[in-house]
Design goal:
- By secondary structure, the protein is mostly helical.
- Helix content is about 65%, strand content about 0%.
């Protein structure tokens, strides 16, 4: 297997992880079991923010070193996202938008869970089964 392919695969998984962190809570509104995976991803994001190196970044750096290229010392986000998907000077804003997206999705999940516990069918799609008229 070529190192270049492994670098590309690692970057693809990294981008997918970042996207999942942002939208995973909303996916859990449709598929509730996804919440556990999303919560794990959010916890990992927090651990990574505390300075623990991401294994995907370690793999990418290892492959780059085998090809004689420099690694990415600042990590995936700083190298491949900041300045590419949003301007570097607005990094603080995008971090807060990610936090807001996660918080909003978890609020909606908690609200749905509370409505379900009260026996209400007004908690969104969770009360809909079969045809729309069957619950009316």
């Amino acid at each position: 297997m070529g190192y270049r392919f492994l670098i590309d695969a690692t970057m693809t998984v990294h981008y997918a992880f970042v996207a999942f962190v942002v939208v995973g809570g909303y996916l859990a509104l449709r598929w509730p079991r996804v919440f556990y995976l999303h919560a794990t991803a959010v916890v990992w994001l927090g651990v990574n923010a505390l300075g623990v190196k991401c294994p995907l970044t370690l793999i990418e750096n290892w492959c780059r070193e085998r090809l004689g290229e420099p690694g990415i010392p600042q990590g995936f986000i700083a190298t491949h996202v900041t300045g590419v998907l949003y301007p570097s000077n607005l990094e603080w804003l995008f971090r807060w938008l990610v936090v807001l997206a996660i918080a909003c999705s978890w609020f909606l999940l908690a609200r749905r869970h509370l409505h379900r516990d009260k026996g209400s069918n007004t908690g969104g799609l969770s009360g809909v089964s079969g045809s729309l008229g069957s619950k009316v």
